[in-house]
Amino acid sequence: MAIPPACGGVAVGNNVTRCTITDQQLTEENVRLYEHEAKSLFAKVGIPVKEEILASTPQEAGQAAEKLGGPVAVKAQVLIGGRGKAGGIKLVGTPQEAVKAAEEILALKIRGYDVEKVLMAPRLDIADEYYLGVTIDRINYQLVIIACSEGGVDIEETARKNPEKIHRLSLGINDPLYPFQGMALAKTLGVSGGDLRPVGSIITRLYGLYKKYDAKLVEINPLVRLADGEYVAADARMNLDDDALFRHKDLAELGIEKRHEEGEMTPREQQAQEWSIPYLDLDGNIGMFPGGAGFGIMGNDFIEHFGGAPANFMDSGGGPKPERLAQMLVLLDENPNVKAIFGARFGGISRCDDFAKGVIMFLTEHGLSKPMVMRMTGNMWQEGVRLFEEAKSEHPELFEQVEIHGIETPIEEVAKRAVELAEA
Amino acid sequence: MSILVNKQTRVLVQGITGGSGSFHTKRMLDYGTNIVAGTSPGKGGQEVHGVPVFDTVAEAVEQTGAEASVLFLPAAFVRDAAIEAAYAGLKLAVVVPEHIPIQDMLRVREAAVQHGTRVIGGNTAGIISPGEANLGIIPDIAFKKGRVGTVSRSGSITYYVADTLTREGFGETTCVGLGGDPILGSTFDEILDLFDADDETEAVVMVGEIGGVYEERAAERVSQMSKPVVFMIGGITAPPGKRMGHAGAIVEGQMGTAQHKVEVLQEAGGHWARTFQDIPRILKEQGL
Questions:
Q1: Is B211's Cβ below 8 Å from some Cβ in A?
Q2: ipTM for this model
Q3: CA-based nearest distance B208→chain A, Å
Q4: pLDDT tens across the length of chain B (288 residues)
Q5: What is the residue-wise DSSP string for A210-255?
Q6: Which fold has domain A6-31+126-253?
Q7: Is B260 assigned a catalytic role?
Q8: Looking at the complex, does the CB of residue B21 fall below 8 Å from at least one CB of chain A?
Q9: Distance separating alpha carbons of residues A113 and A82, to the nearest angstrom
Q10: What is the DSSP annotation of A80-103?
Q11: Which of A218, A252, A257 is nearest to A235 (CA)?
Q12: Exposed e or buried b for every residue in B117-151, given b needs 16+ CB within 10 A?
């Protein structure tokens, strides 16, 4: 069979694939920028944007509308798409209307995100709308520029219905993007004559911006041609690679730093986030205390396979300190839905002695209120076993509800035991 | 035979003077890995566990004939170190650190392809050829020389699979951790090729997980393999739209879902194991 197209895109014959940007790339660990932040970076690299004003209160919004003069758009600033459908964008004619619109929008919660600011933008007299985007094609280890002659719409839907409208250019990370290539892509948008050079330049600048700031995704949707012939980025979306933020000190000056999803979180997920533990609440009753993400994911599958239901997903990360392991257990012990805890440690970079110290710290300082079964093996397992035996001989009462297995017991048997304990 | 590394492979540790570099050098040496050199710019001339330290990879290659490296460095230094390894002509570079910037890995991959270097990782537990050599952080307790090759995104899963294969008497030829980062130096299909060409490997166990595109990329190769391929995919029960720990592990868009990966790999002729204990059962059915 043929290699499937990258990024969930549409295959178009002759081994050419077309790429669409799906939410897949948006939900990974990355730093999403607000529209106004992305636009300030656009302005920095010479991508045309109109003067717009950020407002935190209805009064500020009114003043901004007054300053901008004429009709304006009031746009919710949230880190998630779909704000238009959720009532997060309103077009108004006067400053009084702007105050009222801002009041309504600032009271909204859009897909779990509180609206804290609105962007006040002059209304545009639009003649044409286009789409431009840059992202990565992981299968082929390339960057991809995507251009579509239809903008301001759901690009995935366009890719499904009218794939011929989408054009892409793939480049190796060390390849330059020449002006002629930018103009060739501009031409696929239907742009012609004296507009080729400025639109080509927007494309090359957008690509430059993507590389300069280690972005994972940059989109202008839509890029608009105004009635007077001017081109402007009417919206802006940008996600950065949070693993590369360390080398972009100038972003910190703009207030752009590591941020996590602030959508709807449960109190336990918030607590876990404060402790920097990747954690998700699920519906079941078995508290999952795995090692790294690999078994964190697979262990949940096993529990369901054996008829149980995990209460959470969790990832200890590589080489967790005992304090962190103890915190992980506190999250599970204090969750009333959890009837039993299933622990697994195969020590690699995370050593069994640290694992044992963390568990003992939890048992001693917090205490366990429900049965726990775990398996521990791997690097430094002998030391881990010794620590457990020592603690147990001193305080056997702490271990009354704890079962510890070693390499002699297959992990599946331990998972089955956890299911049994949760049912008991 | 094993793939990628054996007893004779002359191994270099980049970042040998650091805490984990030094700790795991000792472990790898104790296993019998032929570590001939370490590097740490500015610390040339020192020794770590009896291993000579050089300033540059090129010097280490010239004086010790090093041919493979393991990197124990902060993520920010990986791009330079891995490209240095490629320029110096190493055949293999194992990138243990995690959270390598994406554009850095794209550059590393280009240099690696250009210079014929196989880069494994980032965020890999490493590679072990049981009884021969151990490159990375893999605990050797579960591994025994045998006849099945394994390749997995996750380190801990590599250990559990070997634990099962060893218990059931199959043993392993080589176990490769591809790594958990979103952009990897090597892909499943490339490692499958190596196992297919290896005389001692009779079957391959491949373990992927939700998110990313590497399992889908491997499907075509799975269909061309002359040996049985047993596969597992983590995240079958993961709720859609929820993000999990590995940067690459997400459930959005069909390409990344566990169900999609299972479908394309089954269609390609792979055998789906739902638990580790399914693996030996399937291998026996396949005549091993």
A1: yes
A2: 0.90
A3: 9
A4: 799 999 999 999 999 999 999 999 999 999 999 999 999 999 999 999 999 999 999 999 999 999 999 999 999 999 999 999 999 999 999 999 999 999 999 999 999 999 999 999 999 999 999 999 999 999 998 999 999 999 999 888 999 999 999 999 999 999 999 998 889 999 999 999 999 999 999 999 999 998 878 899 899 999 999 999 999 999 888 876 544 433 233 233 456 788 999 999 999 999 999 999 999 999 999 999
A5: HHHTTEEEEEEEEEEEETTS-EEE---EEEEEGGGGGG-HHHHHTT
A6: D-amino Acid Aminotransferase; Chain A, domain 1 (3.30.470)
A7: no
A8: no
A9: 12
A10: SS-TTTTT-EEEESSHHHHHHHHH
A11: A218
A12: bbbbbbbbbbbbbbbbbbbbbbbbbbbeebbbbbb
- Six-digit token string for A51: 């003067």
Interface subset of B 74-103, CB within 8 angstroms of A: 75-76, 96, 98-103
Say what the pTM is.
0.89
Four-way CATH pick for B11-121: 3.40.50.720, 3.30.70.270, 3.90.190.20, 3.30.930.10: 3.40.50.720
Q: Which CATH architecture has domain A51-122?
A: 2-Layer Sandwich (3.30)
- Nearest chain B Cα distance for residue A52, angstroms: 32
Residues of A in contact with B104 (CB under 8 A): 244
Radius of gyration of the CA atoms of chain A, in A: 27
According to the CATH classification, is domain B139-285 in 3.40.50.261?
A: yes
